[in-house]
Amino acid sequence: MLNHIHSLRRFDRGLLSLLVLFALASKTFTCALAFARRKPHHILLPSTLSSDEIHAKLMKFALEEAREAGKMGEVPIGAVITRELPSSDGSRKFEIVSRGRNLVETRSDASAHAELQAMRKAALSMKNWRLLNTTLYSTLEPCPMCLAAAQAFRCKSVVYGAPDLRLGAVKTHIKLLEMAKHPYHDIEASGNVLEEESATMMKDFFRERRKQNRKGQKLLGGEEKSMIRRILQTLNPLGRSSQ
Question: Residue 80 has what DSSP assignment?
Fold first, then answer.
């Protein structure tokens, strides 16, 4: 009799786990479908703008995502995927295909970087994993994982804001694109677009974390302390105080 009761309890727990997984999967699918059906966001820019000026305009959308990530308690890093569309009035027309923000802590997922969030959403929106002729804008220099993913997704180019002294894979920590030629896709990369805005946002975030640490509200781990030092080092070349 007791064995029978224990079996029923195990069955109930297993059934409950399946129901929870099904609910989470359904919610994820619904969110993805809603995103795919979202109306595209188009931006018209004067044809007289330089490439640097265009990059700065589009990077502001990534900065918006970074701010939202910071409000959630995440390290404030944001990204967007854009592509240029034909225009009939002489201006330059761009589409914000997708947006992404850092969700590592929220999802307990080490791969939930802003860049990967944006690329995954863009693939859903375009109904194609090949993000040809798109540009990935990120407020922080992509790490090796995200830069390799940009190659895998076939992004045309990557534009970033602040350099990442600890994990930057374009040129700051390692030069991944120069280490070996990719077998079937080349990607262009450039950085330091609205660098000070991106780096200052992260510096302010970690300053607040340090204040909380002093008040005993939350203890910083070794990785977070290391990131604080990295952000301060990033800002020093800009003439910023590290205090």
Answer: E
Cα 98 from Cα 78, distance rounded (Å):
11
Distance CA 135, CA 175 (A): 19
Asked if the model's pLDDT at residue 11 lies above 60, the reply is no
Query: C-alpha distances in angstroms, 176 versus 1, 146, 186, 192, 234?
Result: 63, 11, 12, 18, 20
**In angstroms, rounded to a whole number, what is the distance separating the alpha carbons of residues 237 and 84?**
33
pLDDT digits (tens, 9 = 90+) for 184-213: 888 999 999 999 999 999 999 999 888 887
CB 109 within 8 A of CB 127: no
- The set of catalytic residues is 115
Please state, in angstroms and rounded to a whole number, the distance separating the CA atoms of residues 109 and 119.
16
DSSP state of 217: S
Query: How far is CA 148 from its chain centroid?
Result: 14
Q: Six-digit token pair at 93?
A: 């027309």
The span from the CA of 47 to the CA of 146, in Å, is: 31
pTM above 0.90, yes or no: no
Instruction: Give me the mean pLDDT over the 173-192 stretch.
Output: 90
Listed in sequence order, the DSSP H helices in 109-194 are 114-126, 144-152, 176-179
CA 174 – CA 159 distance, rounded (Å): 16
The type of residue at 51 is S
